[in-house]
Every structure is written in structure tokens, then in C-alpha cells.
Amino acid sequence: MTNGPGDTTSVAADTLNLPLPQAEYSIGSIIPLMSGPEEMTVREDHAGGLTADYISRLKRIEGDPRPRETVNTDMGFIILSLSLLLVTLLTVFGRRSIFSGLSSISFRRREETVPAGTSEVFSWPPILRNIFTILNVSLFASTALLVPGLADNDLFGGPTGLTAVLGGSFLAALLLRHLTSMVLAGITGLKNLFREYVNVVYNIWFACSAVLFVLNGIILFAPLNNSLPFITTGLIFVAILLLIRVLRLYSIFHDRHIPIFYFLLYLCALEVLPVLVTLKILGVF
Predict the structure, then answer these.
(1) What are the pLDDT digits (tens) for 107-153?
(2) What pLDDT, on the 0 to 100 scale, is given for residue 91?
(3) How distant is the alpha carbon of residue 180 from its chain centre?
(4) pTM (predicted TM-score)
(5) What are phi and psi of 198, to 5 degrees?
(6) DSSP conformation class of 13
(7) Using alpha carbons only, how large is the chain's radius of gyration in Å?
């Protein structure tokens, strides 16, 4: 069938529903976009009878930058997990060693006994206690330096390197004190006295590290607005235990009726002199 003159043909026209311009837009729920009317330009492009509207010059809302991590929480999680494993092993297999060690800190007068010798100090329960001590003391020390900004975050390659250096230094200090005490014991003949003193040193630090273990977990993983009170608490607790160690050394000398003059000499050699050397190395004076 052909159309003749005067016939009409109906042609369906495509229609396009276009959204009305808005002042606020967002891409999903992650990137909000906002522009004022004066910053918004709406352009119309006509191609083949179709109209396309698009919006240009959109401005992204500025967000707060994520603060840089001062302490490596991954490293802290590994140290705390290893410490928890050591505590579990000691609780299951070395509970008696823990109780006997902590009892040496007490000021109660006990019957004269021969303390553990050097070979027993380096048996497996004390070794596990010492590893636990070194891990938690070094982790707390690095946290106490980095969180208040006392040490640069890039010192020794970062928090992990700083913790490793502090742990190695603390281990060297313990071994040096042990060696010094054994040399003095050989020179003076007071072997039982210095063996007891060495045991007190190790067990004081173990009791201290048990508290620091809890504080490390709170500082690193608890949602705190300010961790400085917990750092201050740890420092105060360490200072109290070091004072107890000095008093315990005095009680050891007093129980054996050794003159106070020798106590002062040993106190300077074993307690005061190492602190002065450490402060000199750190450049305090």
C-alpha cells in the first residue's frame, strides 16, 4: 500500500525524563559531594535531538587525615601474644618456680637457706620468666618514649627497631649486673648473699613486667583518648619496685649482720653507678 498525497503518517517521538538540577550530590555513601549554586554550572548538549545534562566543578568535602601510628600495634600484638604463651607455660609447668621466686621479694624473715646457684638461675623456668620480662619492659619503654614524643618515630628504623634496641640493652644490663654480683661474691666470699641478691633482682623485674604486660595491652589496644595516665602509672610502679629492691638488699645485709659501711659500698657499685653510667650515655649530663 502506498501513501498518496495528503496522507499522514504518525511517528512515535522518543521522550527522555531528565532529573532536575540539585544543589547536593553524593556518590554512594562514601564520597559526599557538595557545591553551592554559584559553583554549579549546568550545560546542555544537543546531539540528534537529545538533551544531556551534566554537572561540572563539583567540590569534595575535606576529611580529617588519619594520624600516623606512633607505636607499631602489629609488633605489640606479637609481643603480647608471645608473652601470654610464656605465662601459660609457666602457669602450667612452672607454677612452683613463680611462687618461690616472688616469695624472695618478701621482707619476712625466713630460715637461712642456700639460694639457687647460677646454673639454676639459667634453668628453663627462670629463662622463660626473663624472656617475658625483657619483652614487656622493652615494649613499655618504647611506648613511653614514643607516645609523649620524647623519641623520634624514625629512631632506630621505627618502633620495632627501638623496641629491639631497648630489649637488647636491658638484657645486657641484667647480664652485666649478674656478672658483677658473681665477681663480688668471689672476691668477698659472700656467695649466698649475692646469689640471693641476684634472685631478688630477677624476680623484682618479673613482678614489674607482669604489671607492664597489662598496661601494654591497655595502652596499645584499648580505645583511649589519652594513654599518658597509664604510662605514668607504669613508671611509678617501676620506681616503687626499684626502691623495694634497694630495701631488700639492705635487709639481706642486715640479716647477715654485715656492717652498714659495706652495704653503702655495694649499693653504690650495684645500684647507683649503673644508673649514672646510663644517664651519661644518654647525654643527660
Answers:
(1) 665 544 545 554 455 578 888 889 999 999 999 998 888 888 777 77
(2) 85
(3) 31
(4) 0.68
(5) -60, -40
(6) P
(7) 35
| Cα–Cα distance, 75 to 52 (Å, whole number) | 55
Q: Which three cell numbers stand for residue 85?
A: 604463651
CA–CA separation, 190 and 194 (whole Å): 6
136 within 8 A of 213, measured Cβ to Cβ: yes
Kind and range of the H or E element at 27?
A: strand 24-27
Which cell numbers hold the place of 240? 616503687
Half-sphere exposure of 256 (CA within 13 A, CB side): 18
Query: Comparing C-alpha atoms, which of 283, 125, 266, 243 is closest to residue 183?
Result: 266
Alpha helices in 46-158 (DSSP H): 73-93, 95-103, 118-121, 124-146
**Nearest in space to 130 (alpha carbons), one of 162, 165, 173, 93:** 173
CB 72 within 8 A of CB 157: no
Question: What's residue 95's pLDDT?
Answer: 77
CA torsion sign for 67, 68, 70, 72 is: positive
Query: Cell 623484682 sits at which residue?
Result: 204
Strand 24-27, strand 31-34: pairing: antiparallel
Burial class (CB in 10 A: 0-12, 13-18, 19+), 116: buried
Tell me if 166 sits within 8 A of 142, measured CB to CB: yes
Given a cut of 50, the residues of the chain with pLDDT beneath it are: 1, 11-13, 23, 25, 28, 35, 39-40, 42, 47, 111-112, 114, 118-119
Cell representation of residue 199: 634472685
Closest C-alpha to 212, from 99, 70, 76: 76
Exposure string of 45-77, with b = 16+ CB inside 10 Å and e = fewer, is eeeeeeeeeeeeeeeeeeeeeeeeebbbeebbe
Helical axes 191-221 vs 159-188, angle rounded to 10°? 170
